[in-house]
Amino acid sequence: MKDILLVVDMQNDFIDGALGTPEAISIVPQVVDKIHAFAGDIICTRDTHSETYLTTQEGKNLPVPHCIEGTPGWQLAPAIEEACQAKGAAILNKLTFGSRDLPSFLQETYPEGIASLHIIGLCTDICVISNALLLKAFFPEVPITVDSSCCAGVTPESHETALAAMKMCQIRIE
Please, what is the Cα angle at 6 between 147 and 77, to 5 degrees? Predict the structure, then answer.
């Protein structure tokens, strides 16, 4: 059984691009350190949209084009990309807040089971919480931990709200 680190959407558009924040910029060094220090397997997600993003429900609710596949904003931040490559991380593109492919990828890749899931990344209040709750539903007996020092939300307040919500759903917050 393996320990898994899920690095959610550490992409340029969420760090210092179209939807970037000072909080997102500030966590990059801790995320890089966490990736390098993690003893298990690493999986990264990339928020992935097409040129028709603004016509989607998400695009109508958040009319800021971001993470358009193939653009610089869609790429993982350079330091994150380098750390993930050094650790042989798998990368999954996801079209929705929660990765619909992640549970089956984990089940197929780790048929012997998963010892623990650790989640870091962006944004705490959208994609981190969506993936944490999705994983809790598929793997209810696997301990799930979110490292709050390696996450940032759309705002500091929504980050804290998301952490509290995950804690109530029996996801460990450190």
Answer: 90
